[in-house]
Design a protein that fits this description.
With 465 residues, the protein is mainly α. The chain has 17 helices and four strands. A four-stranded mixed β-sheet has the order 1-2-4-3, with helices on both faces. It is globular and about 65 Å long. The N and C termini lie far apart (64 Å).
């Protein structure tokens, strides 16, 4: 053991850094694989509805959710293994410096020499994201058209899928490349306090993106329509007014064209809040509950043949209970707290980046002996050097998220929505084929929302009153 320590100490600093990064990456993968194995064992062995779930879930739904989650877990194992092996091979074979050299050749042919580092960085980023998209495409296809299709969730055709994927890639590049170029420029000219300017820039960008996402970006992929006038809209507005939520608009998004999974969220700052409901959440609006009209053509053809004859979504009272939970996050300051935590973390990371960026051994560890490009420094430090810190932070945020979820449920109880939230959680779990039994370590490490039984138990006493 002492000899191994001596041999390790004799290695150059860049070799120790490189080996440490690889070892930690595989340690995290093996830990995740261990947790997933424990959870798959639960899926395989829990074949009958537990007694405490007898009044909540029927045996048919229980079996469907068990098989769905088992398929997802098996897929996650193989895709995770591929991703880890791919990442390891890229590092060992010098894929990052190779792609940087290719980017330099491409930008050089376009008339931009080595002094145009930002241009070369953007070419590198474009090629890297293209490579990631192409290598991830088979896995995405299998997940969508085999697993999701098999269990009745996929509503897309192959043509819709590829059109959507291309659109996502283009929109991502239109945002990513300009933002990255400005960030690199700020770091270059920012002097000793560039980390402050870089942090402020990313703060502004994140706030702008949150503000414009639902109005300008999301509608590029899904159709948003105002919730029609009626009882549900009036009840939502009344509830929002009762807690001083500055609601301006309520939208319904046609998520059923993509998937039968359901969701709801709110967005906006200050006095301009909007609520977005997926049509799959609303029993009266879900396209999956309706027969398509005769003669409908165009985009409807892409999903019409996939519509399943099943009742989905929640009744109006249950939708209000779900929204009561979501608005609880706002009323209790969870959104602001998450933003503060995120920005404190961002500032800390940029500060540490400023401390470490001058260490040449970090670049040498990944094959950059002559140059130290800023973009590569960001990648090395944020993705690899910070990885232990990121794992700890992720776990802490997961624990905090579960605490926030219980508090939001309690807020909905205070609004008198306990009974309706209780039934809504059961319906949503059934519609999304959530499996209500989990391994305790897997749940503790991964679940940002408390398990269904724990949430129902917290609501049960008030519901019975």
């Amino acid at each position: 053991m002492a000899l191994r320590g001596e041999l390790w100490a004799e290695l150059p600093a860049e070799k120790r850094i490189f080996c440490s990064v690889l070892l930690f990456s595989w340690a995290v993968y093996l830990w995740e694989a261990f947790l997933a194995h424990r959870q798959r064992r639960v899926y395989r062995t829990t074949t009958h509805v537990p007694r405490e779930l007898g009044q909540i879930m029927d045996s048919e739904t229980f079996e469907k959710s068990r098989l769905y989650q088992l398929d997802k877990s098996t897929f996650s194992f193989w895709s995770g293994l591929y991703s880890e092996v791919e990442g390891t091979m890229i590092l060992i074979c010098g894929g990052i410096p190779f792609l940087w050299d290719v980017s330099g050749q491409i930008s050089g042919r376009a008339g931009f020499g080595t002094e145009y580092e930002i241009i070369q960085s953007l070419v590198f980023l474009l090629l890297a994201t293209l490579f990631s998209a192409l290598t991830g495409l088979p896995w995405s296809l299998y997940n969508t058209f085999v697993i999701e299709e098999k269990h009745g969730f996929n509503q897309q055709t192959l043509g819709f899928f590829f059109k959507d994927a291309i659109k996502k890639f283009i929109v991502t590049q239109c945002i990513l490349l300009p933002v990255t170029s400005l960030l690199l420029y700020i770091i270059k000219i920012g002097g000793d306090y560039f980390f402050i300017y870089a942090w402020l820039f990313t703060l502004v960008v994140s706030l702008v993106l949150v503000t414009i996402y639902a109005d300008y970006i999301a509608p590029l992929f899904d159709k948003f329509i105002p919730l029609p006038e009626g009882e549900l809209k009036q009840q939502i507005e009344t509830m929002a007014k009762s807690i001083d939520f500055p609601l301006t608009k309520v939208y319904v998004v046609e998520g059923s064209k993509r998937s039968s999974h359901s969701n709801a969220y709110f967005y906006g700052f200050f006095k301009n809040k909007r609520i977005v409901l997926f049509d799959t959440l609303l029993e009266d609006y879900s396209a999956l509950n309706k027969e398509p009209a005769e003669g409908e053509e165009g985009e409807n053809e892409e999903t019409k043949s996939k519509t399943k004859n099943k009742k989905q979504g929640c009744k109006n009272e249950e939708v209000l209970a779900v929204l009561g939970h979501e608005l609880g996050h706002w009323k209790l300051g969870h959104t602001v707290k998450n933003i503060i935590i995120s920005q404190m973390n961002s500032f800390l990371c940029f500060f540490l980046f400023a401390v470490l960026i001058g260490r040449k051994e970090l670049f040498a560890a990944f094959g950059f002996y002559e140059t130290q490009p800023t973009l590569i420094g960001l990648m090395i430090i944020f993705q690899f050097i910070f990885s232990p810190y990121n794992e700890i932070l992720s776990f802490c945020l997961t624990v905090l998220s579960r605490r926030f979820e219980f508090q939001a449920d309690a807020f909905a109880k205070e609004l008198g929505k306990a009974k309706d939230l209780y039934s809504a959680l059961i319906k949503l779990n059934k519609d999304n084929l959530g499996f209500p039994v989990s391994d305790w370590i897997f749940s503790m490490w991964h679940y940002s929302h408390p398990p269904l039984l724990e949430r129902l138990q917290a609501l049960k006493d008030t519901k019975q009153e």
